[in-house]
Design brief:
Layout: E1 2-6, E2 9-12, E3 17-24, E4 32-38, E5 45-50, E6 57-59, E7 67-72, E8 77-82, E9 91-98, E10 112-113, E11 117-122
């Protein structure tokens, strides 16, 4: 499984960004997908996750209501729409995949990782 994240950039506080993750795998629909982020000097933390069908989602408390995760199994893609961005959202954002129907929020449950995309929110 290869994952390619894109869509990061520099945005002002209060702005929006849409991250995308393209997966190179034949059976994308069998994978739960997640987004994580890591700020400098901090541990990687959970952002959002979505089940294989898209019917179940989970968000970190800090992101609830501001971020929306979605997927298109026909395109082997998962997106993270981020709005009302804050400077503390600044981090490298990673998409991850786990071969399961179950959504998980811990990074060690995900076996496959993309390279990350930088999101910088200026105040």
């Amino acid at each position: 499984v290869q994952l390619q994240a894109s869509g990061g950039g520099l945005v002002q506080a209060g702005g929006s960004l849409r991250l995308s993750c393209a997966a190179s795998v034949r059976t994308f629909a069998r994978y739960a997908m997640g987004w994580f982020r890591q700020a400098p000097g901090k541990e990687r933390e959970f952002v959002a996750a979505i089940s294989w069908s898209g019917a179940s989602t989970n968000y970190a408390n800090s992101d609830y209501g501001r971020f929306t995760i979605s997927r298109d199994n026909a395109k082997n893609a998962v997106d993270l729409q981020m709005s009302s961005l804050k400077p503390e959202d600044t981090a490298v954002y990673y998409c991850a995949a786990r071969h399961s129907t179950v959504v998980e929020t811990t990074s060690n449950e995900y076996a496959y990782w993309g390279q990350g995309t930088q999101v910088t929110v200026s105040s």
